[in-house]
Design goal:
- It is a single chain.
- With 394 residues, the protein is mainly β.
- The protein folds into four domains: 108 residues, Protocatechuate 3,4-Dioxygenase, subunit A (Sandwich); 122 residues, Ferric Hydroxamate Uptake Protein, Chain A, domain 1, CATH 2.170.130.10; 57 residues, no CATH class; 72 residues, no CATH class.
- The chain is 5% helix and 37% strand.
- The protein is built from three helices and 27 strands.
- The strands form eight sheets. It has a five-stranded mixed β-sheet, with no helix packed on it.
- Strand 14 and strand 15 form a beta hairpin.
- The termini are far apart.
Length: 394
Amino acid sequence: MMLAGLPTKVQANDGGSVSGTVKDPSGAVIPDAVVTASNTETAARQTLTTNDSGVYSFQNLPVGHYNLDVSVPGFRPYRRTNIKIDVNSSLLVDAVLELGESQATISVEESPVQAETASTQRGEVITSEKVTSLPLNGRSYTDLLALQPGVMPVTTMTSSTVQGLGQTVFSPSGDLNPGTTSINGQRESANGFMVNGANAEEDGSMAAAIIPNLDSISEFRILVNSFDAEYGKYSGGQINVITKSGTEEFHGDAFEFLRNTDLDATNFFSPTRDTFIQNQFGGTIGGPIRKNQVFFFADYQGTRLIKGVDSGQIPVPSMQDRIGNLSDIASSFVTIDANGNTVPSTVSGPYLASLLSRNLGLGPLGVWAGEAYYTPACTIATCVFPGAVIPPSA
């Protein structure tokens, strides 16, 4: 996947909002104040002015860290630093200016813990640090949905489950977790999935149709309650994934996760280790195309799997056994008569199976009769039971 980034406003809601009121020391609002939000990673800037009520509002800032600058003639410049914008976040940042024309800027650093007081929606933000540091078998971000309270990390869907469109459920993400989990007690099909603000779910199973490479994810958020109106379609949860973008500097990484037969233990029921070789490898790279204007980001992940079949220690009939000649295992049969005496057993001939089922109606070898098991002694001509001689042609 390769993305090019422009420092312009986009319509998809793949970022957060910052709003607030600009006031003077007495608490009076200041209209026409110039407010600028600057992304510290890309140097992208958005500028607007406050309205007559002294209110400003940046409705859709891309995910990242920002500095907020406020300037008004007759007041000292004001700067709020380290404002972190998460996906679907809504922050309220007010600014109180001081009188004076001094060039010294009033700088206030934002607290690392930011409360969203302008929104009622709830949901956990899973950052890239968590995504890449937690061990995941398969490298699917959907395995981390259970980090949000209210998410049940199991599903009732099976391969025979029929959905509303009349088809059986299938996984659009191959062997990766499709994200069909119950959120807040709702059905697995009641969840929505988005990638960078665009719909990214399979309409039949309502599962995640696009699962980005873990190293390419900047963060994702699981909204579970009190959605904004734009998410009114879903009664379960809304999962919005934001991928990384290029910055003013070149950054990249490479990875490989290996599992092979030499690192595996032998199955308890198997005499040997069957082949299992799995390689997951890839990397990311991003940087500027034109400083402060155009950026790119690309990622790749490949999976190679060689898997043998482990059948365990399961005995199978020999070719002689399959045609009814059980002489090779006759010594394993023990026949006990009514007096408790052991009777020698010989089993041979191609007619054994059909004789027992067709003529005798006694089922398999070792027929229960009263208080003991009776195993017939068969030759090519006859099957001898205690007190009876039955020709094969009977």
